[in-house]
Amino acid sequence: RITDDNGRRLVFFGRYAGLAGMINTLWTLGRRCAVLGLDTPFHRIRQAIEYGCLDEARQAVAEAGERIRASGLPRSLRPLVCGFAGYGNVSRGAQEVFDLLPFETVAPHELPHLRECSNRLFKVVFREKHMVEPVEPGAAFDLNDYYRNPQRYRSRFASYLPYLTLLVNGVYWDGRYPRLVTKADLKALFAGDAPPRLRVIGDITCDV
User: Fold this and answer.
1) CB within 8 Å of 32: residues ≥ 6 apart
2) Is the pLDDT of residue 144 over 70?
3) 166, 29, 99, 23 alpha-carbon torsion, rounded to 10°
């Protein structure tokens, strides 16, 4: 954590964190699916540390994408939706890896209406206005106010969780801000009769 004389950060967690984190998230998805008895192309992806260079990792993800195009995804994973929290350096790095797969971009409000698709994934990027809402009834979201007065806002992210297969978190957070996903959110998600769609949360942050 390198800062200037006023405590402002000079070196930021960025693109390479997103690249490595997304590779590891896809590796985790492959292992998670294997435990559930699902054979997927993600199982052949290795952890980022096992590749000698970025091009090797890119090739492995691209090959997984080709297998998805040719053979499709297991029915129980359809539609496979990857949500990216944030749109900064970390998120863009993670999306750079994800975009090697066949995908379609959708907006958050479209999630409840996605159709089944065997040979491509869906990508959704969440901005602050999608993740939080004002506590005061009827108040409009204001980005500058949110950063100045985060105590006036609460998370609204739980409403998206039932539609996500992967959640990749790449946003800054500290204790002043609402939590993106809480233990209570996950308890409610897993309390239903059927297992939820959510398989992996890739948390690519290091703001301690």
Assistant:
1) 199, 200
2) yes
3) 120
